[in-house]
Design brief:
Helix content: 55-70%
Shape: globular
Strand content: under 5%
Distance between the termini: 15 Å
Radius of gyration: 11 Å
Number of strands: 0
Structural class: mainly alpha
Length: 60
């Protein structure tokens, strides 16, 4: 069974995108670009979601 965790090896800031990429089996850079676009379009809500995820998702 897979578990969602923040990545310790594929991280730029907190490892959230790297962990999501490992969990869903996709390139973490796709998640990073999507998050950046969502942050710009939603006036910062994407960044808030990232910060909440960094607190709630456990590290490997």
């Amino acid at each position: 069974m897979k578990r969602l965790t923040r990545s310790r090896t594929d991280r730029k800031i907190c490892g959230v995108c790297g962990g999501l990429g490992e969990y869903f089996g996709i390139d973490p850079n796709v998640i990073r670009v999507g998050l950046a676009i969502a942050t710009v379009i939603s006036a910062g809500t994407g960044a808030l979601i990232y910060l909440v995820s960094a607190v709630l998702i456990p590290e490997e």
